């Protein structure tokens, strides 16, 4: 080869330099585009504050301490002996929001801290957090267009008392408004088991007096801390109907509630496509139902007209109709599912049942890949085994931790009705205007009883000093809390969270205790298999994966997760 054909070192360096400069220019261009995109998203996604009247702008309440809480005029909040916060508010939309925020500001700030803490664990990289922040901001840029002026003003009133600590995410009003879509966003994160609820209704020959009893577990899980401070909220609005709902600091939407006419609403997540645009958060649709409907048809009319961005089932009970229905809603269709006249029950887990949706491929795949069908079958089995229900026996069903035929499927299993993750459980007897709300932990603490007629007929100023729950109707705490099994599950959940963290080191003593704490649950072994796979100990990983495979599995998703670990182990052995 001619020497002239051999590039000199100088030429090589020059070429490398040009390539390097070109790469830097491309990178710089990408960074500039990204910055411009984020800046544009920031301005595009700004949501304006609602317009207040001159009178509303001048609103300024103060609060005074009462036993266990605070009061402001007729409005009050206090913590009861079971650890539940009870709160009463009244007035127009902005007044309700303002006094709600005033009385519960510590709970609002605490709740947001817990929520952000959980998000930080899921999204530890700062750049990724900011990317998600702007994507969600853009996604929800028109959110306020799908929220009524009434609810925007109420949310704005609440946001006046939100902390400035998280202003790096968004201003308080934008944050609180967006948090109302958290249940909906949970649909897009179903693999993280954020949303998966169980509810049912019985009546006629299935109850002692023939009246309706409804029970539900609200399994919206954002960590145990998030569920610590539940609020039983009683609202006397200036328009619509008086109502109660179970909520948390900063939340005016409804996930579980009943109004003065005995109309009940509970939310159950349904199989849904990943949202592609914003619409009304489902909790605000449920709030509208509770505030403005008396019958199942009126509820259906409100839901049918609403524009939502995820699919949902709303279990609606009506004292006036003496029936319970599941109103199934997607972004494009609405259907009312009810059992035939000979049936005295309705069940609802996390799949559609109406003719409109039950044969949909998304619904069928959801039933195969998630334990919703197994929970449904177990719920049916428990209802078959109880001849006449009372509110106490409904609580027993909600606390059940077994699989079909009383099989031990391990603690916290998604196939169980009680997965030990519930934010709350609630029981309604709508015709009697009675409601029971569970206290911590999960649905295992006491269920406190309330009569809505008595609460709303009472004098709010007197109630600031008196009990409003009915002590004689309290459902006792689950005896499971006093067993070694409960101690085990607390340990199991602690290690199950830690073992997924990169810097966690598992010693043999903890490993043995971890297995013993929940040895019938497949995920105990799958977590260990994944841990050892990451440590490149494929022999031990394979051993644990095969043990996971031998345990009770309720869905294709669980089987596939185990098979993937086994396949990777075999490839590396």
From TrEMBL:
Molecular function GO terms recorded: acyltransferase activity
Superkingdom of this protein's organism: Bacteria
Keywords associated with the record: Acyltransferase, Membrane, Transferase, Transmembrane, Transmembrane helix
Keyword Lyase: no
The protein, known as: C45 family autoproteolytic acyltransferase/hydrolase
Domain Peptidase C45 hydrolase, chain residue ranges per copy: 207-406
Source organism phylogeny: Bacteria, Pseudomonadati, Bacteroidota, Cytophagia, Cytophagales
Transmembrane regions listed in the UniProt entry: 21-44
């Amino acid at each position: 080869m001619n020497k002239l054909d051999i590039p000199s070192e100088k030429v090589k360096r020059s070429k490398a330099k040009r390539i390097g400069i070109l790469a830097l220019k491309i990178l710089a261009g990408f960074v500039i585009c990204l910055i411009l995109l984020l800046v544009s998203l920031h301005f595009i996604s700004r949501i304006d504050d609602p317009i207040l009247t001159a009178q509303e702008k001048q609103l300024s309440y103060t609060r005074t301490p009462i036993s266990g809480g605070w009061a402001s005029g007729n409005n009050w909040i206090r913590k009861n002996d079971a650890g539940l916060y009870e709160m009463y508010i009244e007035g127009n939309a902005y007044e309700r929001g303002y006094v709600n925020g005033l009385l519960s500001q510590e709970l609002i700030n605490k709740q947001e801290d817990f929520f952000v803490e959980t998000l930080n664990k899921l999204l530890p990289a700062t750049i990724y957090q900011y990317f998600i922040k702007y994507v969600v901001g853009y996604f929800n840029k028109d959110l306020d267009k799908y929220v009524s002026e009434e609810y925007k003003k109420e949310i704005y009133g609440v946001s006046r008392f939100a902390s400035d600590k998280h202003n790096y995410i968004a201003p308080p009003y934008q944050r609180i408004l967006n948090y109302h879509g958290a249940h909906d966003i949970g649909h897009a994160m179903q693999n993280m088991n954020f949303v998966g609820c169980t509810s049912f209704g019985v009546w006629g020959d299935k109850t002692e007096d023939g009246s309706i009893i409804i029970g539900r577990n609200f399994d919206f899980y954002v960590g145990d801390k998030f569920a610590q401070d539940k609020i039983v909220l009683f609202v006397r609005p200036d328009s619509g109907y008086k109502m109660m709902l179970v909520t948390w600091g900063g939340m005016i939407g409804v996930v579980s509630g009943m109004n003065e006419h005995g109309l009940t609403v509970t939310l159950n997540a349904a199989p849904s496509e990943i949202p592609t645009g914003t619409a009304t958060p489902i909790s605000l649709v449920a709030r509208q139902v509770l505030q403005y409907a008396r019958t199942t048809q009126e509820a259906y009319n409100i839901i049918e007209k609403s524009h939502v961005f995820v699919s949902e089932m709303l279990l609606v009970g009506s004292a006036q109709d003496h029936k319970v229905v599941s109103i199934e809603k997607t972004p494009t269709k609405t259907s009312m599912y009810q059992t035939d006249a000979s049936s005295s029950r309705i069940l609802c887990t996390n799949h559609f049942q109406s003719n409109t949706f039950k044969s949909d491929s998304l619904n069928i795949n959801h039933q195969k890949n998630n334990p919703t069908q197994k929970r449904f079958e177990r719920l049916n089995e428990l209802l078959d085994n109880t001849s006449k229900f009372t509110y106490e026996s409904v609580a027993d069903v909600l606390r059940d931790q077994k699989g079909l035929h009383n099989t031990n499927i391990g603690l916290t299993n998604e196939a169980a009705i009680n997965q030990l993750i519930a934010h709350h459980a609630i029981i309604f007897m709508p015709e009697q205007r009675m409601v029971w709300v569970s206290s911590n932990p999960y649905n295992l603490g006491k269920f406190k009883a309330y009569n809505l007629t008595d609460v709303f007929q009472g004098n709010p100023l007197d109630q600031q000093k008196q009990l409003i729950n009915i002590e004689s109707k309290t459902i006792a705490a689950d005896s499971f809390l006093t067993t070694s099994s409960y101690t085990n599950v607390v340990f199991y959940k602690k290690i199950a969270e830690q073992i997924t963290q990169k810097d966690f080191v598992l010693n043999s003593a903890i490993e043995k205790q971890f297995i013993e704490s929940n040895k019938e649950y497949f995920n105990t072994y799958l977590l260990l298999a994944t841990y050892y796979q990451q440590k490149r100990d494929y022999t031990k990983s394979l051993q644990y994966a095969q043990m996971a495979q031998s345990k009770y599995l309720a869905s294709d998703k669980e089987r596939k997760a185990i098979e993937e670990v086994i396949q990777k182990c075999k490839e590396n052995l």
